[in-house]
Design brief:
This protein is of the alpha+beta class and 160 residues long. It is 32% helix and 25% strand.
């Protein structure tokens, strides 16, 4: 008898989205090796998908309780957590990538309002924090000498 696999909320929502859009999507059975969650077929092209989910951590649960009690709170961009999820997904997808298959990481925010995931959060998780380099010009005035991603990247020319 085949064991019943319990899907995470994000995996279930992804499958529902594919079904609603009539995109062929097949769950890949979990095995000994780390593998993708889904194989999506677009025309005759197989795209391998790893679905990741950010659940509330302990500090977010505590902050939510304080907010319910009337304290103010703030949303925080979970860049490090997103970076970690990208790294885990890459490990599961790299076999497919090496074979030349397109791959996709889907990240779902299940932590609610206290984890704010936007394009800046994801970009910073992939390329590192964005910043400016300052310098003194010949008149001893501070000026911007450059800008870009400053470190903490998970994305390189050949990985992720």
């Amino acid at each position: 008898m085949k064991a019943v696999e319990i899907l995470t909320k994000s995996e279930s929502l992804f499958a529902d989205l594919c079904a609603a859009r009539k995109v062929p999507c097949e769950r890949i059975e979990e095995g000994i090796n780390r593998i993708a969650d889904y194989e999506v077929t677009l025309d005759r092209l197989s795209v391998y998908v790893e679905v990741k989910q950010l659940d509330p951590n302990e500090s977010q649960r505590k902050a939510k309780e304080k907010m319910r009690a009337g304290y103010e709170g703030m949303a925080v961009a979970p860049t490090r957590r997103v970076r970690d999820q990208i790294a885990k997904a890459y490990n599961q997808l790299k076999t497919y990538c090496k074979r030349g298959h397109p791959c996709l990481v889907v990240l779902f925010n299940n932590a609610g309002i206290l984890s704010y995931i936007d394009s800046i959060t994801v970009t910073s998780a992939m390329f590192g924090g964005f910043g400016f380099r300052l310098a003194l010009d010949s008149s001893q005035t501070i000026c911007v000498s450059g800008y870009g991603f400053l470190g903490g990247r998970k994305l390189t020319r050949n990985t992720c």
